[in-house]
TrEMBL record:
Taxonomic lineage from the root: Eukaryota, Viridiplantae, Streptophyta, Embryophyta, Tracheophyta
Source organism: Dioscorea cayennensis subsp. rotundata
Residue stretches making up the EamA domain: 10-148, 175-314
Protein name: WAT1-related protein
Domain of life: Eukaryota
Pfam family for this entry, one: EamA
Subcellular localization(s) per the UniProt record: Membrane
């Protein structure tokens, strides 16, 4: 019964995320400022996570906030909230929800590369699974290139294809894909940093709460410095309506993040990652039905390549986790390598 609940919940979570991306695209097109959305959605998410953090993890909180832990938490807040989410929203504005949902499928490959460079992930070049992961990552990158440069908004459909800001050309599309690509690189770095932080701060709900709340504060400060005040943007929606929308979105996102965190704890990150392409498919369907946005065959091919690369990577990672290293007897307590993605 738990297996059925978990699978159904993961599918439902991805569908909700897909609908939320389409919803965000519509809200941004109406003129709501991306930074305003980041601030209030993360404040809402942090308030939702606070009870879980206090009730379930209070005994796991570190007794003192060391300078190292403080820097790690601040870096995750700035990178994972202020920079990552702002770039993602800018990317959604200039492309489409389907592309925005597809791009995060690059994250496992990038995380593997970064972790390998930092010696947090073992890389054995004589192992077939290592090469499978490398080939999968290359396929994902090829898919991104195809998705970015083979899109032709003006010819993809007889329907009106409206990209945010009213600029319906390939330059805007490529810039938007660039924003999304950079955001994935950043979140991959943050994922590695989270793995390091969790070695001393073993409280995922509390970590998310701190990241969301501090990130919202940093984002608010950024908007005040850049624009002189907290600005909702020039929108046709009333302030009350926008706040209601953001609060609802933050609450829904908080529920989904909490459920995914539970699934990762129960079954590991590989199973959760396998459901991410569902978000891309439903984002494309919802965007076509609600926003009348279609993507070209070229970009669809790129998404297919990305899916193939993702599943190759996840398959290799799963198989690799079953293997017992030949040199396991040689591992000592002084070994500093940690299995990040297992």
């Amino acid at each position: 019964m738990e297996e059925v609940l978990m699978v159904s919940g993961l599918v439902g979570t991805q569908i909700v995320f897909a609908l939320y991306l389409v919803f965000l695209n519509k809200v941004l097109n109406l003129g709501v400022h991306p930074l305003f959305l980041v601030v209030f959605s993360n404040l809402t998410g942090s308030l939702f996570l606070l009870p879980f953090a206090v009730v379930l993890e209070r005994k796991k909180w570190p007794r003192t906030l060391t300078p190292t832990l403080g820097i790690q938490l601040a870096s995750q807040a700035i990178g994972g909230v202020t920079v990552f989410q702002t770039l993602t929203l800018l990317g959604v504005e200039k492309t489409s929800p389907a592309i925005a949902a597809a791009m995060p499928n690059l994250a496992p490959g990038f995380t593997f590369i970064i972790a390998a460079c930092l010696r947090l992930e073992k890389v054995e070049m004589r192992c077939k699974f290592t090469w499978t992961k490398i080939i999968g990552t290359i396929l994902c990158l090829t898919g991104v290139i195809a998705m970015s440069f083979l899109q032709s908004p003006t010819t993809s459909s007889k329907l009106t294809y409206k990209v945010s800001l009213g600029d319906n050309n390939e330059t805007e599309w490529i810039i938007g894909c660039g924003y999304l690509f950079i955001s994935v690189v950043i979140i991959s770095c943050i994922t590695v940093l989270q793995a390091v932080t969790m070695q001393t701060f073993r409280a995922p709900f509390s970590l998310c709460f701190v990241t969301f709340s501090v990130g919202a504060i940093f984002t608010a400060i950024t908007q005040i410095i850049v624009e002189g005040k907290m600005e909702i943007g020039s929108t046709a929606i009333s302030l009350t309506g926008v706040i209601g929308i953001v609060l609802l979105g933050g609450a829904v996102t908080g529920v989904c993040v909490t459920f995914q965190t539970w699934c990762v704890k129960q079954k590991g990150p590989v199973l959760v990652s396998m459901f991410s392409p569902i978000q891309t498919v439903f984002s494309a369907v919802f965007a076509a039905l609600i926003l009348r946005q279609l993507i070209s065959i070229g970009s669809t091919t790129g998404i297919a390549l990305m899916f193939a690369g993702l599943y190759m990577f996840l398959w290799a990672k799963k198989k690799e986790s079953y293997q017992v290293p030949d040199d396991i007897a040689k591992v000592t307590v002084n070994d500093v390598e940690k299995p990040l993605l297992s």
